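re: the backbone from monday

yeah here it is again, tokenized this time
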């Protein structure tokens, strides 16, 4: 088993996912499962292919900041998939780092 680059934190908040499924742009509502500075696991009512690029919008836990991030699907099993964030802006990275630090205090 490979070691993770950053700690994961259990979370549960709504997400909105934008993806291309079968050559159609889709907007899907889903739920977060865990979050790290590099990515997140989500539950989404679609079978996403590994390697697919997606956009995810969500409110950062314990803040009033909304993020819209790009990610690549790294694993997919049923309705659960893991997404690695790509090309985060410094502002987005700081929001995620601050959020994970807060989540780590209460873990």
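seq for it, each position gets an aa:
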């Amino acid at each position: 088993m490979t070691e993770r680059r950053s700690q994961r934190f259990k979370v549960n908040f709504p997400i909105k996912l934008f993806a291309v499924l079968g050559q159609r742009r889709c907007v899907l509502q889903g739920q977060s499962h865990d979050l790290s500075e590099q990515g997140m696991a989500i539950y989404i009512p679609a079978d996403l292919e590994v390697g697919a690029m997606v956009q995810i919008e969500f409110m950062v836990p314990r803040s009033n900041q909304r993020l819209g991030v790009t990610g690549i699907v790294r694993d997919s099993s049923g309705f659960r998939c893991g997404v690695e964030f790509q090309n985060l802006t410094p502002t987005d990275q700081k929001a995620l780092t601050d959020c994970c630090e807060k989540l780590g205090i209460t873990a």
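The chain has a mean pLDDT of 91. The first strand starts at residue 9 and ends at 10.
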